[in-house]
Specification:
By secondary structure, the protein is an alpha+beta fold. The chain has four domains: 2-21 and 220-318, no CATH class; 33-208, no CATH class; 334-395; 430-582, Heat Shock Protein 90 (2-Layer Sandwich). 52% of the residues lie in helices and 17% in strands. The two termini are 76 Å apart. The structure holds adenosine-5'-diphosphate. Adenosine-5'-diphosphate binds next to helix 15 and helix 17. The site of adenosine-5'-diphosphate has 19 residues, from helix 15 and helix 17.
Length: 588
């Protein structure tokens, strides 16, 4: 993957640059041993100075030692040591005698031990232990729990930096044992000491398989926790070693990678360096189903070191974004299909409604034409007969005139209905609410419909209530609605039956009933009969006259008054239509 190569080429120099500012441990190997830092005091060698003492000094030393060891005759021991201290030609013997003198003094003086350590930095005791370190241990024992003096810390610093020995760790630990003594300086000395130990340990581990002369090498050390980078110096006679803790290296790689965006979202990056996989902080071990890209890079500092950058991602992470996109697309397509289906359904419904409406309209036109033709035909026939004087009988002539008048009234009412309906359709129908004499209105409607009722052999019954309500309505519109209801009731009543009109008051509401003893209306049709142009039965076998707009007009009038029209009917039991209206209608 070119992106991985590009990245590896960029992070190599960046990590090298970061390493220059990082804390590295450094050491030098020469001639198969550690040259720096000094580890001379690390191995205990018996001291050679006791063997070089003169016979007199050797005797004095022995006397003094045995007196100190047996704790007998401290006066004798002191005398022997004093003599040795004063007379001995050997500096080492004098120093050791002084140490024993201080130790056997009744009042041990901590500062005197520190001063002794300072004066004899290079002297060892007869057992080979470095005298300054032993003196510092004595100083600590002489003043337990007392804060460390500056002289002590200076001497300890010198020992850690210049003459570390197998006793340095013990001195540091003893010094830090009372927690109140642990100060910044002592903490720094502990760190320095730990670095010294690590460096020496790494160098000794390297020396177990010494690098060839002039070799540039990279090796993991101390259980793979430190990367040692070696490169020759001084013409190859020395090898410089820089030691980088594994954690530091991982952090620096991570920092370098953070500066450059990974080529793909969901990728993990890690580094292979000298046979070790270096997991970066926040990085996680990729799973087996890993897709990888690898690219080689190199560090230039502190010495050349190749590495391989691995970009890895398990499929689930890598394709997560793609899967999300797929889901989004699927959801989008699903929504689009759903919207299209809803649209199509709405279109289909609209089309069907339109088709049904145009069918109803054409039915309406044919019904209206039919309704007009029949009375017009009858009127024309009667008028022609009268004109040609075919009707001689004055009584019959009178009957003809009456019939012509009746047919004309019916025609007028039909035309009024149609005109009203078209006004309502166009929203142009105006209602004027004013006080109405309800009883007179009802009686007028009955009077209008009486000839038709008589023609059909139907009786109209209306008994005004004792205390009739006084509503505020559009009288003409209500009368027209009543006429439509009475017209329907007569049309559907059998000959000899009665149609009853009633006024029922209930508080602020009035119900006007028109009841008949006709065939009734099945429940499934009861809500549909108020639909525009709806007529029960087939158009071909039309039992009653009409155009299917009468009840639509009734409904419109009722709603314009803030009321409603209800129907109570059972097949074979007649029908009752009720106009439910508030006493005072207001414009809405
Ligand atoms: P039209 O009477 O002109 O057909 P309407 O809107 O007045 O139109 O009535 C719609 C339908 O309701 C009628 O076709 C009829 O089948 C039914 N209907 C109306 N009033 C009654 C009634 N009193 N008894 C039985 N059916 C009725």
């Amino acid at each position: 993957m070119p992106a991985a190569q590009d990245l590896a080429a960029k992070i190599g120099p960046r990590v090298s640059q970061l390493l220059q500012d990082a804390k590295l441990l450094r050491g030098v190997i020469a001639g198969g041993s550690v040259e720096s830092p000094s580890d001379a005091g690390w191995v205990l060698h018996p001291a050679d100075w006791p063997a070089q003492l003169s016979a007199d000094d050797a005797r004095r030393w022995e006397q003094a030692q045995s007196a100190v060891l047996r704790h007998t005759g401290s006066a004798a021991a002191i005398a022997a040591l004093d003599a040795l201290h004063r007379t001995s030609a050997s500096r080492a013997a004098r120093a050791n005698a002084e140490l024993l003198l201080l130790d056997s003094a009744s009042q041990a003086n901590s500062d005197a031990f520190v001063e002794l350590a300072h004066r004899y930095p290079d002297i060892v005791t007869d057992s080979g232990a470095p005298l300054p370190a032993v003196a510092l241990l004595h100083a600590l024992h002489a003043a337990p729990g007392i804060p460390l003096s500056k002289g002590f810390l200076d001497e300890l610093t010198r020992q850690v930096r210049e003459r570390p020995s197998f006793l340095t760790g013990q001195v540091l630990e003893t010094a830090a044992t009372p927690p109140n003594r642990m100060n910044t300086e002592l903490r720094r000395l502990h760190e320095e000491w730990s670095d010294w130990q690590t460096t020496v340990d790494v160098l000794h581990e390297i020396l177990k398989a010494p690098p060839r002369r002039g070799e540039v090498f990279q090796r993991w050390s101390l259980r793979e926790q430190y990367l040692a980078l070696g490169f020759p110096a001084l013409g190859g006679s020395q090898i410089n070693v820089a030691i980088v803790p594994r954690q530091t290296l991982a952090q620096l790689f991570s920092r370098a990678l953070n500066r450059f965006p990974l080529p793909l979202h969901g990728l993990d990056a890690y580094v292979h360096i000298t046979g070790e996989r270096l997991l970066l902080p926040n990085g996680r071990l990729p799973r087996s189903s890993t897709i990888t890209a690898a690219a080689d890079g190199a560090l230039a500092f502190p010495s050349p070191c190749p590495f391989t950058l691995i970009l890895a991602a398990d499929e689930s992470t890598l394709f997560a974004a793609q899967r999300t996109r797929l889901w989004q697309m699927s959801a989008l397509i699903f929504c689009a299909v759903a919207a299209a289906l809803i649209g199509l359904t709405a279109l289909w419904r609209g089309y069907q409604r339109q088709a049904r409406l145009s069918e109803l309209k054409s039915n309406f036109v044919s019904s209206v034409s039919h309704e007009l033709r029949a009375p017009l035909g009858a009127v024309r026939l009667m008028a022609e007969n009268l004109e040609r004087e075919k009707i001689a009988e004055p009584a019959q002539q009178k009957e003809y005139y009456r019939l012509i008048g009746q047919e004309c009234r019916r025609l007028t009412s039909l035309v009024e209905n149609v005109l009203d309906f078209s006004r309502m359709e166009a929203g142009r129908k105006q209602y004027t609410f004013e006080p109405v004499d309800l009883v007179a209105l009802m009686q007028h409607a009955v009077a209008i419909m009486s000839p038709f009722a008589a023609e059909r052999g139907v009786t109209l019954q209306f008994t005004p209530p004792a205390d009739p309500p006084q509503p505020c309505w559009d009288g003409a519109a209500i009368e027209q609605a009543l006429v439509n209801l009475v017209d329907n009731a007569i049309k559907h009543s059998p000959s000899g039956a009665a149609v009853t009109l009633e006024i029922v008051s209930a508080g602020d509401d009035v119900r006007l009933w028109v009841k008949d003893a006709g065939p009734g209306i099945p429940p499934e049709d009861q809500s549909r009969i108020f639909d525009l142009f709806y007529r029960r039965g087939s158009e071909l076998r039309r039992e009653t006259t009409g155009a299917g707009i009468g009840l639509s007009i009734v409904k419109h009038v009722a709603e314009a008054h803030g009321g409603r029209v209800i129907v109570a009917s059972e097949v074979g039991q007649g029908s009752a239509f009720g106009l439910d209206l508030p006493l005072r209608s207001v414009h809405v």
